[in-house]
Amino acid sequence: MSAVAEKAVTTTDESVTTDGFHLLIDALKLNDIDTIFGLPGIPITDLTRMAQVEGMRVISFRHEQHAGNAAAAAGYLTQKPGICLTVSAPGFLNGLTALANATVNCFPMILISGSSEREVVDLQQGDYEEMDQLNAAKPFCKAAFRVLHAQDIGIGVARAIRSALSGRPGGVYLDLPAKLFSQTMEAAAGRNSLVKVIDAAPRQIPAPEAVKRALDVLKSAKRPLILLGKGASYAQADAEIRALIEKTGIPYLPMSMAKGLLPDTHAQSASAARSYVLAEADVVVLVGARLNWLLSHGKGKTWGQDKGAKKFIQIDIAPTEIDSNVPIAAPLIGDIGSCVSALLAGVGSNWAKPDAQWTGAIAERKDKNLTKMAETLAKTPSPMNFHSALAVVRDIVKANPETIVVNEGANTLDFARSIVDMYKPRKRLDSGTWGIMGIGMGFAVGAAVITGKPVIAIEGDSAFGFSGMEVETICRYNLPVCVVVFNNNGIYKGTDVNPRGGDVAPTVFVKNARYDMMMQAFGGVGAHATTADELRKAMLEAVASGKPTLINAVIDETAGTESGRITSLNPQSKANKK
User: 578 Cβ partners below 8 Å, 6+ apart?
Assistant: First the structure.
């Protein structure tokens, strides 16, 4: 143990003392936080060592961004803020992307970073990794705090936890200058300075008149639809949500991370008729979903703008979210569990089910689309395409419904969302609201560490490149993670050509790369699959063994579409240059 660690708690003739290192650890433990994701270095190296000594789990990464993503995933899965610990300046900035993503996605997370001393930073005197981190963080998180004195560590941690969890969850930054850690105080006074956060996310009961308004709007519907967002999944009000859907008989549509709240095979699921129900529904109940770009802002052709106005009922804990894109006829402000329970009570026992013409039209389109999809998935082309490879993943997940699926990419993400069914809540993690790349290995590690469940990470080869070095982290901690890299030799596809010769096209990677050998290099299992049968065999072995595994799944390099399903967001040049 280092000299700093040895001096952390000292005995003198007068008293027993503690220091900033131990006060921070004790403050986290007091609030039932037992895991830290991070990367050691100045000035927090000893903090990571001491946290282990004090019984905390410290998961050390190769890059701070991925540690931050792991913390964000942990926050989403547990409703406790995930903790990411970084060094100052560059390390803080590396973690800032994950912090911003957690805030946009409404995942509770706290980024704790060591920093340079205020008196040097404020005079810009050129300290080691000098940076005003507090002000740099503020635009990208819910709240940012700096602690300068050891006696305030307890309050600082408490404020960070409450900010991360209360209302709409999100990211919080906690700035700890280097001098803070070595500050000492009497141990008894230190213990008394710590704060146990009580009821950080209290229930927020919707107003009775708001509940009545929502029920009146819903009663007027001829073609109702319930739309579930990842907020519904985070809320862990699974039984209430299922009861509302089944009691009313209303068709529902889950966003990608809400898949599994009810099994995707549920009779009322409208996923296979998504385009139809969005365009045709006349009343839509938004449960933990926002009308952002993922839902075309509630406007336009997607929502059948030529078919008349829709009415929206929106359940959200943030009143400022209401009317953000379109008028909301019936805002229902409160936590999702309380709001759904209030609706359930109002529905009663004699609620009129939706008209059979509506549900029948949905069922007809579902059957048609599912039959068409089944025919496509049954094909076994050589080399594999996205459909034939994902058909294998679909079967593996069906047989192992407790498995957590992490998914990112362009085509890899788009196809997996519609092909791989989920059966349990909070078993799917993906790029989410911000559409960010690079979450793969961080989310996979976070999910495996926090839940102990097996994880399948479905990665495009481009997406994997953002965080691929963390396969060493997966091996180091012997985590039950199976990474499947869909390798088609490039971004979107591997067929682009530089018409002028010389360098390869900017979207093309090294041909026939062997990503599986990366995992083998760190002691994990690597597999190379060129057929659906080989992929199935490798995945079955990975899930059965629980060993860190990476499968290089060779996909036809002509498969894939530019920008996936958001091609419309990718500007194309109209210039006619001579």
Answer: none
Between CA 82 and CA 90, with CA 87 as vertex, the angle to 5 degrees is 110
Query: From residue 374, how far is each of 47, 95, 379, 425, 534 by CA, in Å?
Result: 53, 42, 9, 24, 21
Which tokens hold the place of 169? 């969850």
| Residue 79 buriedness (CB in 10 A; 0-12 / 13-18 / 19+) | middle
Full strand arrangement of the beta sheet holding 224-228: 252-254, 224-228, 283-287, 311-316, 330-333
CA distance linking residue 155 with residue 159, whole number of Å: 6
Contact 513, 465 (CB under 8 A): no
Q: How many CB atoms lie within 10 A of CB 372?
A: 11
Identity of the amino acid at 152 = D
Residues 337, 240: Cα–Cα separation, whole Å: 7
With 50 as the cut, is the pLDDT of residue 1 above it? no
d(CA 185, CA 137): 29
Q: What is the pTM of this model?
A: 0.94
Query: Is the predicted pLDDT of residue 62 greater than 80, yes or no?
Result: yes
CA nearest neighbour of 87 among 216, 176, 26: 176
pLDDT (mean) for 315-332: 96
What element of type H or E holds 212? helix 208-219
Residue-wise pLDDT tens digits, 512-529: 999 999 999 999 999 999
* Vertex 245: Cα angle to 240 and 247 (nearest 5): 90
Q: Residue 3 pLDDT more than 60?
A: no
Q: Mean pLDDT, to the nearest integer, of 35-59? A: 96
Q: How far apart are CA 264 and CA 274, in angstroms?
A: 13
- 113-165 pLDDT, tens digit per residue, is 999 888 888 888 888 888 999 999 999 999 999 999 999 999 999 999 999 99
Closest by CA to 554, choosing from 509, 521, 497, is: 509
**Cβ pair 107, 75 in contact under 8 A:** yes
CA distance 526 to 535: 12
Which residues are 115's β-sheet partners?
A: 177
Distance between CA atoms of 55 and 64, rounded to whole angstroms? 22
Distance of CA 573 to the CA centre of its chain: 33
Cα first-last separation, the chain: 69
Q: How far is the C-alpha of 443 from the C-alpha of 431, rounded, in Å? A: 10
For 559, the 3-state DSSP assignment is coil
Taking the C-alpha atoms of residue 297 and residue 318, their distance in angstroms, rounded to an integer, is: 17
pLDDT in tens, 376-399: 999 999 999 999 999 999 999 999
pLDDT of 575 higher than 70: yes
Q: For residue 456, give the nearest of 506, 402, 528 by alpha carbon.
A: 402
Tokens read off for 484: 């499947």
CA distance 426 to 309: 33
Query: Could you give the percent of the chain with pLDDT greater than 90?
Result: 90
